[in-house]
Design a protein that fits this description.
This protein has about 425 residues and is an alpha+beta fold. It has 8 helices and 25 strands. The chain has an 8-stranded mixed beta sheet with strand order 1-8-7-6-5-4-3-2, with helices on one face. Strands 11-18-17-12-13-23 form a 6-stranded antiparallel barrel.
Length: about 425
C-alpha cells in the first residue's frame, strides 16, 4: 500500500494505523517529501509525469534524489484500448501503476464540480479494467500491478477483483479517515492486525487458503439432544457457495461455537441442495464474524460479512446476500469438552458452576466445559464432527456420545467484542 496526498494528516494516519510507510509524490508536490520529514520515517516514490498517458516511477535509496532508480511506470486507462496496451506490459515492466481517473479529474482542468474535488466521475470504469488486468498479470509474476484508488471503497474493489486482487494500491486522498478505513479493512482481510484482531484461539503456525491463521477446532462429546419448542430460525444465504466441510460457527454461549454445516450436501431427493445457505439457529445465537467479533444472527443484513470456516480450521469471508427468519421447531444440543486442568469451580454458595465441572480422568482431575447450540430440528441441519473429513451429522439423528467440532473462545462479549470481566457466566 502507498498513499498520495497533500494533507500531512493523511500521512500521519497512514503511519499510525500501519497502512503504509510509502508515500507517492507527483509533479509540483514533490517538495512535500522533504517538508514532512519531521512527521515520521517513510519512504518516497516520485512520479515523473511525462504526458497525459502516464509517467515514470522513481525510488531513491535513503531518499537520496541524486541516486534515484526507475522502479516502474504509471499508465492512464480511459478506454478498452488502454486496457489492452497496459496488458501488453505484463512481464515487461517490473511495476505498472494504473490510473482510471480521466486527466481532467487528475489536474482539475475540467469536469465541473467533481474535478474541483479531485473525484472521478461515477461512470469512470474501474472494476472491469481491474479484472481484465488482474487476469493478464496473473500469468506474469515478474510484474506487479498497482491501481490508484480515491477511497477505501475503490481500493477494496480492486483488491478483491476476480477474488485475487491487484498487487498493490495507491490511496489518493485528502481524508485521513479513508486511510484509517483502508488500514482496518486490510487488517480484517488478513485475519489480524491493529484494528481487527484475528479470531481468538487462532493457530498462527498454519495457514488458510488466504494465508490467514487457522482456527483451533476441538472435538467435543454430545451429552444432550432435546427438542425444546419453537423459535425464530435464521437461514444465512451467502453470495458464494460453501464447499463440503464448510459452514458458520454458531452457538448459544460466547465461550464456544459449533460448526454448523451448509446445505450443500445431498438430501436424497427430498429437497434440493442450497450450497449458499447455512441454517444457523435462532435469532439469539452468536455467529463468528471477521476480525474475531461475535454478532447475533438477528443483526445480520444483506451486504454484511461472515466467517466461512472449514473443518480443519481454515477460513475465509463470505458476503451475506439474504437472511431468512421463520418460525420453526428447535432442538438443543449440548456437548462437553475436557479442555484444561481443574481449577476451583465452586462458588461462594458451594454450588458447582453449570458450565465447568471437575471430572476424574486417567491424567487426574480435569476441567470439563459444556457448550450449547440451538438449531432447527430438521434432517438438513448438520453439525460438523470430523476435522479431517469434514463429515457432519444431522441434528435429527444425533445421539449422546456423537462427536462435534467446537471452536473455543476466551472471555465474555460486549457488543460482540471480547472482554475480560470477573463474575461473567452464561448458561
Amino acid at each position: 500500500m502507498w498513499i498520495e496526498t497533500t494533507n500531512v494528516q493523511v500521512l500521519l494516519a497512514s503511519l499510525e494505523s500501519g497502512l503504509t510507510t510509502t508515500a507517492l509524490f507527483a509533479g509540483p508536490n514533490t517538495h512535500l517529501a522533504e517538508d514532512w520529514r519531521t512527521v515520521g520515517r517513510f519512504e518516497t516514490v516520485r512520479l515523473d509525469e511525462r504526458d497525459e498517458r502516464g509517467g515514470v516511477l522513481f525510488s531513491a535509496a535513503d531518499d537520496d534524489e541524486q541516486n534515484e532508480t526507475a522502479v516502474g511506470i504509471s499508465c492512464a486507462v480511459a478506454s478498452p484500448e488502454d486496457v489492452h496496451d497496459v496488458a501488453r506490459l505484463a512481464g515487461v515492466e517490473p511495476l505498472v501503476l494504473v490510473d482510471c481517473r480521466p486527466r481532467e479529474y487528475r489536474d482539475g482542468t475540467g469536469g465541473g464540480d467533481d474535478a474541483a474535488a479531485g473525484e472521478a466521475p461515477a461512470d469512470a470504469w474501474r472494476i472491469i479494467p481491474a479484472e481484465n488486468l488482474v487476469a493478464a498479470y496473473g500469468r506474469a509474476p515478474e510484474s506487479q500491478l498497482f491501481f490508484f484508488a480515491d477511497s477505501c471503497e475503490d481500493a477494496r474493489a480492486v483488491l478483491e477483483a476476480l477474488n485475487v486482487g491487484v498487487d498493490g494500491v495507491v490511496l489518493r486522498t485528502e481524508d485521513p479517515g479513508e486511510a484509517r478505513a483502508l488500514a482496518k479493512y486490510i487488517s480484517a482481510a488478513a485475519g489480524g492486525g491493529v484494528d481487527a484482531p484475528p479470531p481468538p484461539n487462532a493457530d498462527a503456525g498454519a495457514s488458510s487458503p488466504k494465508s490467514s491463521p487457522r482456527l483451533d477446532m476441538a472435538l467435543a462429546a454430545v451429552t444432550r439432544v432435546e427438542v425444546v419448542g419453537v423459535g425464530d430460525r435464521v437461514c444465512v444465504d451467502c453470495t458464494s457457495a460453501f464447499q463440503p466441510g464448510e459452514g458458520l460457527l454458531v452457538g448459544s454461549f460466547a465461550r464456544g461455537l459449533f460448526l454448523a454445516h451448509s446445505e450443500c450436501l445431498s438430501s436424497f431427493g427430498y429437497v434440493d441442495p442450497r450450497p449458499f445457505r447455512v441454517n444457523a439457529g435462532p435469532v439469539c445465537s452468536y455467529v463468528l464474524l471477521p476480525g474475531g467479533r461475535a454478532g447475533y444472527l438477528s443483526e445480520l443484513r444483506a451486504g454484511d460479512e461472515v466467517l466461512c470456516v472449514a473443518s480443519d480450521g481454515t477460513w475465509s469471508t463470505k458476503t451475506v446476500g439474504r437472511v431468512k427468519i421463520e418460525r420453526r421447531q428447535m432442538v438443543l444440543v449440548e456437548a462437553t469438552l475436557v479442555d484444561g486442568d481443574c481449577e476451583n469451580t465452586v462458588d461462594d454458595d458451594d454450588e458447582f458452576r453449570v458450565d465447568a465441572l471437575c471430572v476424574d480422568t486417567p491424567e487426574g482431575l480435569k476441567r470439563a466445559t459444556t457448550y450449547s447450540v440451538l438449531l432447527q430440528n430438521a434432517e438438513t441441519v448438520r453439525l460438523v464432527g470430523d476435522a479431517e473429513t469434514g463429515d457432519a451429522v444431522s441434528v435429527s439423528a444425533m445421539r449422546v456420545g456423537d462427536g462435534v467440532l467446537v471452536h473455543r473462545l476466551a472471555g465474555g462479549r460486549h457488543t460482540g467484542i471480547e472482554i475480560a470481566e470477573e463474575g461473567w457466566e452464561e448458561r
